[in-house]
Design brief:
Layout lengths: L9 E8 L2 E13 L4 E5 L4 E6 L14 E6 L5 E5 L5 E7 L6 E9 L3 E2 L3 E4 L1 E9 L6 E3 L1 H9 L5 H19 L35 E2 L1
Parallel strand pairs: 1-10
Antiparallel strand pairs: 1-2, 2-3, 2-4, 3-6, 4-5, 6-7, 7-8, 8-11, 9-10, 9-13, 11-12
């Protein structure tokens, strides 16, 4: 039977490349349902990030990397993912004012479920949508071009990533579920503890299951 996570339970959200963990961050499970997954990432959590030998962050796995324990951000994030869907959508808030900042579409492989959380693989390209949903903009097009040039993705895959990004934009701008539910005013349960990555976060299972 597929293991499901209860609200408030810590999970690991990981990016996997070539059978290795490339990045991992702890999150709190908000909703683990058949039609959607919702995660909360509080400010200042400790994450694992790929770094080069000189200590520089590695955004695209085109060179050797090692994992380093880092603190990645100061803002709170609510992340939505959907079955068989090649993107997640992040709601973000200003770290100083707690005002809703907008939506961030992360193009990625559909999530797979593991004993410690959920795995994916970045498709590098992202989309930014402001709080008023008045426009949208691509982010990291140069990194996607680099990934295609290095052979990580084909030009045809890159086109599919763009199509998925456009579909995500449509879902948000047209206020299709769940983006018609007033998430801009969402607040975490104050009883939730700050999540931490488990020791098993660096180990990759041989046969993850679809989320």
């Amino acid at each position: 039977m597929t293991r499901r996570f209860a609200p408030g339970e810590p999970v690991a959200l990981r990016e996997i490349w070539s059978g290795r963990v490339f990045a991992a961050r702890p999150a709190t499970m908000v909703e683990d349902a058949e039609d959607r997954l919702v995660f909360y990432v509080p400010p200042s959590v400790r994450c694992l990030q790929a770094r080069a030998d000189d200590g520089a962050p590695v955004r695209v796995p085109t060179r050797p990397w090692r994992l380093e324990d880092v603190e990645l951000h100061q803002q709170r994030i609510l992340s939505f993912a959907f079955p068989d869907t090649p993107y997640s959508v992040l709601a973000t808030w200003d770290p100083d004012t707690d005002e809703f900042r907008g939506w961030y579409v992360n193009l990625q492989a559909p999530l797979t479920r593991t004993d410690v959380g959920f795995d994916t693989r970045e498709h590098v390209l992202d989309v930014l949508i402001p709080a008023d949903r008045s426009r949208w903009d691509w982010k990291d097009e140069d990194e996607l071009a680099e990934a295609v040039e290095e052979g990580l993705f084909s030009p045809e895959e890159a086109e599919r990533f763009r199509a998925a990004g456009e579909r995500a934009v449509e879902q948000i701008l047209l206020r299709e579920p769940p983006f018609d539910e007033g998430w801009e005013d969402w607040r975490p349960d104050p009883s939730w503890a700050t999540p931490e990555l488990p020791e098993a976060a660096e180990r990759v299972a041989s046969s993850p299951t679809p989320a």
